[in-house]
Amino acid sequence: MSTGEDTGTLAEAEQRVLDRIDQARRRRPKVREERITLSHGAGGKATQTLIDAVFLDAFRNPLLEPLEDATRFTVEGARLALTTDSFVVSPLFFPGGNIGDLAVNGTVNDLAVAGARPLYLTAGFILEEGFPVADLNRIVRAMATAAARAGVQVVTGDTKVVQRGKADGCYVNTAGVGVLEHPGRLGVATVRPGDAVLVTGPIGEHGVTVMLARGELDLDADLSSDTAPLNGLVSDLLAAVPGVRALRDATRGGVATILNEVAKAAEVSVVVDEAAVPVGDPVRGAAELLGIDPLYVACEGRAVVVVDGDQAGEALSVLRAHPLGAGAAIIGRIAAEPPGLVLLNTAFGGTRIVDLLVGDPLPRIC
Amino acid sequence: MSTGEDTGTLAEAEQRVLDRIDQARRRRPKVREERITLSHGAGGKATQTLIDAVFLDAFRNPLLEPLEDATRFTVEGARLALTTDSFVVSPLFFPGGNIGDLAVNGTVNDLAVAGARPLYLTAGFILEEGFPVADLNRIVRAMATAAARAGVQVVTGDTKVVQRGKADGCYVNTAGVGVLEHPGRLGVATVRPGDAVLVTGPIGEHGVTVMLARGELDLDADLSSDTAPLNGLVSDLLAAVPGVRALRDATRGGVATILNEVAKAAEVSVVVDEAAVPVGDPVRGAAELLGIDPLYVACEGRAVVVVDGDQAGEALSVLRAHPLGAGAAIIGRIAAEPPGLVLLNTAFGGTRIVDLLVGDPLPRIC
């Protein structure tokens, strides 16, 4: 496949990429809707437009602009990463975890995939009047256990209470600070043709688990959330495999959204072999019933790894040697053309474009 | 006034203080209520019990334990401060500001009063389905303006959307990182008898403004929120006055809550002269109608300063020389006995105890 452009010299190619980025910036995206919809929170197209048109436009600065999960900067010689995430999952408790595990693991993972060792977390609670104190205790104890497992500390916090009907029991925000152990090494823009794409385990388990926990679907599956801290796994990988180019945890919007971000940021094509993507039977079955593609379903303990193609086998071995990477797989590769697109070679021999999500098939998953 | 204890030697006095702290720790407070009430978010007694019994008990670590607004630690030689706050103010827009200004100034101020220069902020939004995009734009632009005024950058963020009826338009969490410029210098536990207590300006304006903006009170006052970034004012003060012992911004629970924290942490008595406390006429009038004491009403741009008594005049001059400290005043002093109590010498010549707030007279103020 080709866009038909003359590929020319490397300098010309680079100039084309820069021109495209420049054009994208000048386009100044606009939110067409007058009111916020659930799609704006789904991690797909509407979310990206909202971020570009509202947040990036107002806050624009060099640290924010890469729009990575964690931002990286230096203070008094210390190279740090900083990230934040709010959690609004419904229900609050589900097989394999609760909002507390999610809130710790989510922020730990955002730091880990930025190449940082997570150190300190903040915790902000918005509680609805009437929320059971026993439930709060369960959530907070899950956070403490998750923090201990990940080797981080919750060092400061805040609690607000809103009137009955102004929240959904409990919302949790965490922010996290880590120390960059691999500065300048990772970034989706460094991805290049010939690289391999891996996932660290079977996908979609968290999202489908939460969906089933709502009881809206008459389906009983032996499934639990994959929520887990990935800092140990990522640390092993980065120590052993110098050719790792980019890491992302595949939360809201799933693996498909991450791959689209890679394709757009690096101006490359991502080619995925559907048959190679690890999907457990319960997830496959539930996804079929829900009419959704597992590639778009949130994980909370899985990362997408892009690595130099020559080191893909080594990366796979290192991942599989870790308990949280036992189900890792090579799912695709990076190509030059067509830039900005994710292509799926289907099990039936066809090829289709895996675009950014439009709408929100599974709201309030994380 | 005296507790009747034999004061004895300094070593014996210190031992008594340590014993009391130890006893308090062993008491293991318990939340008696089965469900969260608005009081748990008011910053008073119920909030303290919730923090001690639920959060501190689960997360206990040396950085969290002082329960300061910002925690302080060292990473790779850099001395940092970290803080977080969620904002749920209702209404979102009020004279003098909106939830966006509050969210930036609140976190900037928590860092400033910890002796840190605020650098980087995170922003987490929880939006209710149906929230007007134009309102979100106003809020975000207010945040950008407030950040520029305070000299900080919003460097990473997150947006979640919840269904209609699961929030109140827009909640904002900010976390902030700053570099400690006065490490080891400030802390409420360093306060000692003979110190002077100051406030940086007239109190209660934010809380009363928000209350009136709800329109529940048939009262028209020429009043606007005091929301402002205090980092410049605090920086001037700390540079000029070596004897500053402790700083706190008087938000939820107002000046009275801060003074109680000082009294308890330093095991001293705080004696306030009611006539010296700067309260504007509109706040005084509204507070009378509402049946509340301005000492308990939230400010969002005022700090309480405790300073060596010999340097109180100098501190007052430095504060008054700054536009945000023009209304500063010396409002009281620190005494040895009775430890842990705040006493108010009233305008009528009496003395009464100013205790921690029970209940929440003004919910959703910040």
Describe this structure as you would to a colleague.
The structure is a homodimer. The first copy, chain A, has about 375 residues and is α+β, with helices and mostly antiparallel strands. Chain A has three domains: about 55 residues, no CATH class; about 120 residues, 2-Layer Sandwich (60s Ribosomal Protein L30, Chain: A), CATH 3.30.1330; about 170 residues, Phosphoribosyl-aminoimidazole Synthetase, Chain A, domain 2, CATH 3.90.650. The first copy, chain A, is about 30% helix and about 25% strand. Chain A contains nine helices and 14 strands. Chain A has a seven-stranded mixed beta sheet. In chain A, a hairpin with a 5-residue loop joins strand 13 and strand 14. In chain A, helix 3 runs parallel beside helix 6 and helix 6 packs antiparallel against helix 9. Chain A is globular and about 60 Å long. The N terminus of chain A is likely disordered. At the A-B interface, helix 2, strand 1, strand 2, strand 5 and helix 4 of A face helix 2, strand 1, strand 2, strand 5 and helix 4 of B.
Question: Could you outline the blueprint of secondary structure elements for this entry?
Answer:
The structure is a homodimer of 366-residue chains.
Chain A: H1 10-26, H2 45-59, E1 71-75, E2 78-87, E3 93-94, E4 97-98, H3 99-112, E5 116-128, H4 133-150, E6 153-162, E7 170-180, E8 196-199, H5 205-213, H6 231-240, E9 244-249, H7 254-266, E10 269-273, H8 281-290, E11 303-307, H9 312-320, E12 329-335, E13 342-345, E14 351-353
Parallel strand pairs in A: 5-6, 10-13
Antiparallel strand pairs in A: 1-2, 2-7, 3-4, 5-7, 8-11, 8-12, 9-11, 10-12, 13-14
Helix pairs in contact in A: 3-4, 3-6, 6-9
